């Protein structure tokens, strides 16, 4: 016997990590890789496995302690491996050599390394890794979560495409990745052992019982909606297959659309579509049946005829009727009567809770070691909604937390029509209410003298039209705003959800509010500070055309730093634009007009452009806004400055 100390292994450089659970006690016999403690950071929880087997003699830590790499955890008694072979060993060694060879060949397996990369994540780029769920050496099954990604809109788990042992991991928490980026290398085992055992089985089967192989189908399988990040009631906007179609693994079968993005659901296997259970416009959630798929099969041995007794038994056995699923009622026990003092939940669950406005201390956990799962969160929300619908409060949208207009019967005053809002109109309304309630907004008004700019623009208008460029005042405004943001970086930030920090951006992407047939949309022109006025005019024109033709993709409307909302020729002398959170500033532009201006000697006509700058007072002070507006006016008043 020898005594060994087990210490905290490499935990990614984290220090002072809290112990939330000790999984063993003194006297326990533990195995290699058995979990001994559970640590939790602000990003993830992790099990610390035992590096050796033995008996626990003492434990050096307790729950609530903070530990770092190298700290002592416990002492175990390790049994020496110097044990003589039993007396029966010679008898075993007397086995025929052929039997040994047969056994070794049947258990042989070939290890193969497979590279796992980031799959299609809806066109998003530079998505942050907020959790790495595995470590080198871990064994995972197909579908187990490998990493968790988080965009500014949602978090998503990336599952393992196959089973195996984790090899080298190429990313860490905090990295940003895009589709195709390397995640890790996985060691899988080829099925040599299965092949050899099949050979042995066929060798031991009498020749009369062996029958030639026949090509069979893989059977009919149900294809359900996979994990879609916890979203419920997601609309089906396209069904890409029909009954009778042949699909390959990975082919798109349906397209779903949330209020943030659209996503394609791929076929999990190759085969023929037998029936489709959903249609365009349906609302689905994880687990909903999409279609029945007759999976492509391979060659399989035809089974020998069953004995007569077995046939009789199978014929007399009654067929079990399929259980008809029914929607379960909301479980009111999912809501705790008193807040929990300790909350254990992963980043994806915490992100979803923030989006739903749920207090996790009131959610009853059912996961391992008292952790809150997404299912617990969904059960809590269903219970809360059911309770609210039984006695809804006037003027409150159930489940949304946002005030609404109380119901009224307008038909008693005259003829009316009830017109359903489009999806974009509904989302715009919700975002406007949310932004108006959340953002402490201030609006500053001014006028810019654009007389020289207009003379310059009109002088180039004919020449630009020959080149296919429509030179309106908008490209000059975008260029001027981009340069003003570089000079005043306080406008190029976004506040963090913790309320204690903000993100300083080093790129300048400008959103352009467009009044499209579908409603108000804001396509984003990227790197406006690095482009000429002509380049901006071309790209802005293309974005506006896509918006008017309803061809914008979710990626075209993401990543904005600042928004310009121009009423242009519509008119008006000013308005108060609402900040498009998480941006901290928006510029409203009204109709330019000719006004008399005193030049020191006389009044002269000048073209004046009304500007309305709204900003989030949590991130931008009045002095910052004043400097921004002064700089912007200087650029617009002297067009030469735009070339500097």
Automatic annotation (TrEMBL):
<comment type="function">
    <text>The pyruvate dehydrogenase complex catalyzes the overall conversion of pyruvate to acetyl-CoA and CO(2). It contains multiple copies of three enzymatic components: pyruvate dehydrogenase (E1), dihydrolipoamide acetyltransferase (E2) and lipoamide dehydrogenase (E3).</text>
</comment>
<feature type="region of interest" description="Disordered">
    <location>
        <begin position="195"/>
        <end position="214"/>
    </location>
</feature>
<dbReference type="InterPro" id="IPR003016">
    <property type="entry name" value="2-oxoA_DH_lipoyl-BS"/>
</dbReference>
<dbReference type="Pfam" id="PF00198">
    <property type="entry name" value="2-oxoacid_dh"/>
</dbReference>
<dbReference type="InterPro" id="IPR050743">
    <property type="entry name" value="2-oxoacid_DH_E2_comp"/>
</dbReference>
<feature type="domain" description="Peripheral subunit-binding (PSBD)">
    <location>
        <begin position="344"/>
        <end position="381"/>
    </location>
</feature>
<feature type="compositionally biased region" description="Low complexity">
    <location>
        <begin position="195"/>
        <end position="209"/>
    </location>
</feature>
<keyword id="KW-0808">Transferase</keyword>
<comment type="similarity">
    <text>Belongs to the 2-oxoacid dehydrogenase family.</text>
</comment>
<keyword id="KW-0670">Pyruvate</keyword>
<dbReference type="InterPro" id="IPR004167">
    <property type="entry name" value="PSBD"/>
</dbReference>
<feature type="domain" description="Lipoyl-binding">
    <location>
        <begin position="220"/>
        <end position="294"/>
    </location>
</feature>
<feature type="region of interest" description="Disordered">
    <location>
        <begin position="85"/>
        <end position="111"/>
    </location>
</feature>
<dbReference type="InterPro" id="IPR023213">
    <property type="entry name" value="CAT-like_dom_sf"/>
</dbReference>
<dbReference type="InterPro" id="IPR006256">
    <property type="entry name" value="AcTrfase_Pyrv_DH_cplx"/>
</dbReference>
<dbReference type="InterPro" id="IPR036625">
    <property type="entry name" value="E3-bd_dom_sf"/>
</dbReference>
<keyword id="KW-0450">Lipoyl</keyword>
<dbReference type="Pfam" id="PF00364">
    <property type="entry name" value="Biotin_lipoyl"/>
</dbReference>
<keyword id="KW-0677">Repeat</keyword>
<protein>
    <recommendedName>
        <fullName>Acetyltransferase component of pyruvate dehydrogenase complex</fullName>
        <ecNumber>2.3.1.12</ecNumber>
    </recommendedName>
</protein>
<dbReference type="InterPro" id="IPR001078">
    <property type="entry name" value="2-oxoacid_DH_actylTfrase"/>
</dbReference>
<dbReference type="Pfam" id="PF02817">
    <property type="entry name" value="E3_binding"/>
</dbReference>
<dbReference type="InterPro" id="IPR000089">
    <property type="entry name" value="Biotin_lipoyl"/>
</dbReference>
<comment type="subunit">
    <text>Forms a 24-polypeptide structural core with octahedral symmetry.</text>
</comment>
<dbReference type="InterPro" id="IPR011053">
    <property type="entry name" value="Single_hybrid_motif"/>
</dbReference>
<feature type="domain" description="Lipoyl-binding">
    <location>
        <begin position="3"/>
        <end position="77"/>
    </location>
</feature>
<keyword id="KW-0012">Acyltransferase</keyword>
<feature type="domain" description="Lipoyl-binding">
    <location>
        <begin position="113"/>
        <end position="188"/>
    </location>
</feature>
